[in-house]
Amino acid sequence: MFDSISTRLTNIFLWADTSLLTCEALSEILEITHSRHLLVVCRDGSGLLWAGGMEYELELGKCFIFKPDTALQISNASEYPLSAYLLEFNALTLSANRGQPSPLLEGGEFRVIPFTRLIDLARSLYENKEVEGEAGEYGNHALFQEIVHLVWQSEMKDKDDDATQSVKRTIEYMKESYTLDLTHSQLAEMAGLSLRHYSRLFLKLTGKSPIEFLIEQRLNRARQLLLTSRDTIQEIAGSVGFRDPFHFSRSFKKHMNVSPRLYIHLRKNNIRVISMQFLGEMLTLGIKPVGAPGLLLQGGFLGEKVDGIQEVSPSVINPEMDRLEALKPDAILTFDGHHYESYSRIAPTLSVPWSLPWFERFRRLAEWIGKSEEAEHWISAYYRQVEEVKEQLMQRLVGQPTVSFFWSRGLPQTLQVYYDMAVFYRDLGMKAPPSVSRIQGLEGHPFKANIPVEEIADYAGDHLFIVVSRDQDSLRAMQQLENTKEWKSLPAVQKRQVYQVSDDWLMEDPISRLGQLRSAVQFMKP
Fold this sequence. Notes:
Distance between the termini: 92 Å
Strand content: 15-25%
CATH superfamily of the largest domain: Regulatory protein AraC
CATH class of the largest domain: Mainly Beta
Number of domains: 4
CATH topology of the largest domain: Jelly Rolls
Mean pLDDT: 89
């Protein structure tokens, strides 16, 4: 008889004991020891469970199996009590394993469905654990075998029932059914998971909450329709699942940083844009603005590319509104919200934070005008040239010389030292002098600072670049600096490794940055 059983079963699992663990609200960590296999069934509340170097979320709907002598710790940091049934059992091996390994031997996290039945069975075993007589023992054995059957059927590692796969299926469903009024609860129910478990897995897979992901799917489709359909913005909003066009506009601007109307304008083939900032970015992406401030138009590295662009004001922060309005722009680009309200009365206006990293600003502008591919192509080409310049510098320079960058602004008493000069310190990876390097190591450090002329030696590197503006006062102040003992004593001065450069080196657009890169290798010598 035993032989015939052994041909059908690999293992038999024998219930040994059941206890009820309770953790009061905000309780300290509890240690659990056990010499047998252990099944933990959460009954009420939620907490954390640590075992074998892993952390698990202990909550209603979950159970766990651990091998004998696995050290367990449970904590309850919530404001509600936590309780769980602890079922100990032994495993009897009947024959060599010929099929799928038993989940009760492998252990881990399980989500049994229906979980209410599992709790009922565990409670019955707890209430009847003191039963006397063989009939009662067989009754408890039968209850535990049903638990074994439930756990096996709902084994978490089975791909068909795996929670991750269930969430992935809801994600695909959302991509196809984004126009429906799907709720977080509905999606969790579709996956057969608790809201908390579903949210955690969804965030892990997408980096977003379910509602954020749903809105993203709707907005992606809306972006296509805004450029290809002749429907109104209100009609497009309804067709992608937004019942309220105002909610659509707010969501679109929140995620795209531009309104639907401005998004359409920015994608026009012959857009008439005024660049109160970001002139070089527009030119790099093949868009020639109709107007820009004189300060930007004077950029030496831009050269003939600015021919035909109208000057609308001398500076980027003091616009002449009449001149802007006369150009009848489709859109206006500004930064940090400068004159946003005034510009918006003339044309849809896009404001970009100046604090964004340079390449992120460039990529964001490119995305808004539908030129992301062109931007990535330019960035890739730029970094290829960076590698070429690095190779040239390695051949020309001995060792690892330091580089410093100054602006003569503030002379004769002070001048400005730059802690963040992208071409040198990030792109080419050149070393800064110790005083500059120390500041660079501080989180949130300024990109430049005023220093007294007397301290210039503390910040000067083996190679020294200094911006000198073209006006007579700046040139005269620089000549005075060159006659001081502080300046003449600098090793870079004595080795003729000082390079006066124009204001063009202060520009941060792609064309100017490329020009700075190419010029750097021409200046520096051993």
